[in-house]
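Morning!

As promised:
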Amino acid sequence: MNAAAPYLPTPMRIRHAVRELPGVFTFRFDVPGGFAFRPGQFNMLYVHGVGEVPISISGDPTIPGELVHTVRAVGTVTRAMEPLEAGGMLGIRGPYGSAWPIEEMRGRDVVFVAGGLGLAPLRPAILGVLAQREHYGAVTLLYGARSPTELLFHHDLTRWRGRFDLRVEAIVDRAGRDWRGPVGVVTKLVSDAAIDPEDAVLLCGPEAMMRFVVGELRRREIPDSSIWVSLERSMKCGVGLCGHCQIGSTFVCKDGPVYRFDRVAPLFFTREL
Amino acid sequence: MNDLEQLLRTHPFCRGLAEEHLATLVGCTTNLRFRSGEYLMREGQSEDRLYLLRQGRVGLELRQAGGESVCLETLAGGDVLGVSLLTPHAAHLDCRAQETVLALGIDNGCLIQKMNADPRLGYAISMRLLENTYQRLSRHRLQSLDVYR
């Protein structure tokens, strides 16, 4: 980030564009000088003449020369991004926000709980943990998606399933008979998983899904202080000045998006926020 | 202690159940095995057993027009199938083993008779069924929100 001009994006060229799912795409940018970030942080992506949106970084933190963003086309700006291919340009400023507690949870068992596109902000954390696998206990990924064809990062899931040091469980809301895995919601995986109060649980997905998962974790007597969530709010400036993303006394762009749950639990269940 | 009693004791549904109640349940329980593709229940048939699943996955399926089935949820080892025991109805879904399934089948008629004879057993079983039903309702609510759309 350019501290002197915090709103000035840096033009970056797309090296590789992948259509992950209908309406979901991944851009890889070459960053010859490196792009240091911490898993969980986001960038503001600017489409020239259209607008700017906050997008989580979904790349590997151990590959500093590459920046990766996975985007769902849902609004004016992201729809304008969707047709871009390799060679296209975007303006990028960041990284912003807080990060998953990769260092803090060393020595503990780690459970990642992702729903839908929520796997994208968790991907750097998963890759970061796997890069230093010996520093963690058992590592589990519980992932819920809408249907078997809407599982994100299919290639990663297949690769991760092949590892002996990572347990991967995927569940889908609906499936035909050709799907051999479990059907239902991700809270079912949480209720069936071996999770202890000492484990670190990293949670990302639609807010309704996260509320149900937190309810299940509390039922399992997992303390709020062992849970981290990534919140999503309308972020504009990215540096805690404009107030668009304010909930209660916190600015999601600056103090979040990753929070230890005990610090935002009252806000999480306040209807007006 | 016989094998059935041991199997009942280790199933999550029976966790915390009094010793005498476990012994009572044994008389209503059969150890069952279903091959992949076999049905534990069919839509429209009466639910005459409460299944405590020990191992293997069961799909709760709804047949659509044209005969195509949609799987609404899967249950597996540790789960309970047939929770409408207290309000007997015909099964409204097909319950099909997706792999080899091991289960304890508790005869509903026998169980209700024993629950009526011993209200403490009746309360203990009813509370477990209620908890199970609430959990399933909660999952269904989240599912119906279609949050990943």
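Chain B touches chain A through 22 residues (CB under 8 Å).

Hope this helps with the figure draft.
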